[in-house]
Amino acid sequence: MNSGVKTQCKPSYRILTEEQIKEIHRASLEVLETVGVRVLHEGGVQLLQEAGCRVKGNVVQIPNWLVEESIRSAPSRITMYNQQGQEAMRLEGRNIYFGLGTDLISTYDLETGEIRPSRLQDVANAATVADYCEEVDFIASFALPSDVPTNSMYVECVKAMMEHSVKPIFFTAAGQEDLAVIAEMAAVVAGGASSRGGRRPQGEDVLREKPFLIHYSEPTAPLTHSHGAVRKVFFCAEKGIPICYTPGDMLGATTPVTLAGGIVQATAEALSGIVLHQLKAKGAPIISGFGVVPLDMKTGIFSYGAPDLRLTNSAFADIFHYYEIPMWSTVGTDAFRLDAQAAMEHAFGTLMAALDGANLIHDIGYMGQGLLGNPAAIVMSDEIISYVKRVIRGFDITREKIGLDVIRKVGPGGDFMTQRHTADHFRQELWRPKFLNRDTPKAWMEKGGKSYEEIVVQKALDILATYRAEPLPKDVQQTIDEIASEAAGELAAIQFVA
Amino acid sequence: MSEILNQLKDAVVVGEPEQAHELATQALEADIAPLTAIEEALNVGMQIVGDKFESEEYFIPDLMMATEAMKASMKIFEPALLARQEQRQVLGTVVIGTVEGDIHEIGKSLVATMLSAAGFQVHDLGVDVPVATFVEQVQETGANVVGLSALLTTTMRNQEAVIEALKEAGLREQVKVVIGGAPTGPDWATTIGADAYAENANEAVGVVRQLIGV
Known about the structure:
The structure holds two protein chains of two kinds. By secondary structure, chain A is of the alpha/beta class. Chain A has helices spanning 18-35, 42-50, 64-73, 120-132, 153-164, 176-191, 202-209, 227-239, 259-280, 307-323, 340-356, 375-393, 399-402, 404-410, 420-429, 441-446, 452-466, 474-492; strands at residues 8-9, 37-39, 54-56, 59-61, 77-81, 87-92, 97-98, 106-108, 115-117, 139-140, 169-171, 213-217, 224-225, 243-245, 248-251, 286-287, 291-294, 328-330, 360-362, 366-367, 372-373, 395-396. In chain B, strand 1 (93-98), helix 5 and strand 2 (121-124) form a beta-alpha-beta unit. The longest helix of chain B has 24 residues, at 60-83. The two termini of chain B are 27 Å apart. At the A-B interface, loops of A face helix 5 of B.
């Protein structure tokens, strides 16, 4: 036997050295202490002031020690469950998970090929396809329905997701009011129909112990926490609902154009969010990170496919691994067709996010600069993830795998096809694609000469025609229907603010 | 063209606000009429900048710096114009802002800057602007263009509210209303009775010019 030699050969990637992380960290601390953040919520300002921050109007300067303390108290592991209470994701360390994104306003209609406004059915379709696809670990709305009353949108989305998939749900909300309705529905799914009502509904306890919801909200760059965002952060902190609270910064518009500057400012924004959150409920689960994204300097769009974004993603992955706080990540494409650009950008993004060791990689299947959803793109992403996981897995160099015996046995000029060694190992060693072409030209022609896009579109249509996730128990379905319809009237009257 | 105006034009083209400010001051001291300076240095400079943007030599940040230089010059020329009771020829007067409840700024500010650079008089009301404020400002400024930005699905209905309020105040006919923001679109514009939707700052200038016929 040998001593101290690893036999697993795996790719290993990081972009920041520990010293560089500390440099960024110190700069972020300086921003928080000397520039501060604007908090547009009186209760939030007060909480920060009482904790020892300096306040000038609604600008709060956070001292270094408070930031460090909040990093420490934020949990280093969040275990997520599916809607049936089974363990689904361990958001910790370098565990990687993949899932959908929210709120795409347009949808590529698989049947007609047209790009049209998204509908509630598109949320259901995305959930169905995602529930079917093995490499998808969590779902999200994927569509922003234009055919439901605006203020009920997010409630209807979560309900549709619950009805069409059992996987954990990553979701957005307009404000604390609809967030509360969503939490109420989730408590019923978690604890059963009879758990509704009572002063401390037992469903809420089950949900706290085995969360399947992750709420997604954002501070606003530069350096601002809006009124609505603070309310959501506080609500989630108090209920123990994991929240992903991550700023979106546009390089050269809402943050310095230099990647290092964007990274420092966004780290400050993310950290100030953690401070607010932990002050409300110490030890409550929070997922962090940021989206420091290039603004295209010709067209003014927010680019999801850019290589610059891959770098800033890698940076926050290294930073939050250092802080030991679970982090998200993002993939996506700026293309409107499921074409070479879409595949290119999704492939790069997915590979990089996996190499980053990011915990909650969202927006798989996202298209059109975050404005277009295409269920076939989820199918493509499913394959890309499988491909990437093969790369991440690497290979072994055990004696068995080096196979000197079989090399000696076959000898010069022999063949390995009839060796036991080949039959025993090929399944594990060689990755097989689901849809990528491996046919010879003749066979490919005979099968219709189809493009990759045609194949995954057809697969998505097949899934939608034949697959249904396990439905909710009838009484749970009825109860969440009641909750949603009872809330609709109240929600309609609310003027939500940012 | 005088040497000072030539240098002022260059300061606009390369985007040097401090130099532009200094040269604008010198131009007035040399008894050059402000209208002449605006036409020959600023407008010509911005035209060159526009051409460079078209040919992809210049990009948005270059445009921004050029506009800053132009604004710095106008700080000198505007009081001079006022004193002579002259007026810079503007293509139109624009009131623009992000609607109530929404604090997203960048897209709206980019549009405001591009319109200003194109020769419009722009009143940027900022963010989270109450419906009534839009109406007041249209009244006060005599604007013939209103720009409404909303980045959230939950605030975009305030674009509709502004249009209704303009109708109630008898001002709807006076203005062309352009909307923008990621969740909005041409269909939404039609639904709420806006005159047009503009997808980005570039497009906005063309759309506005077409709407008011300049």
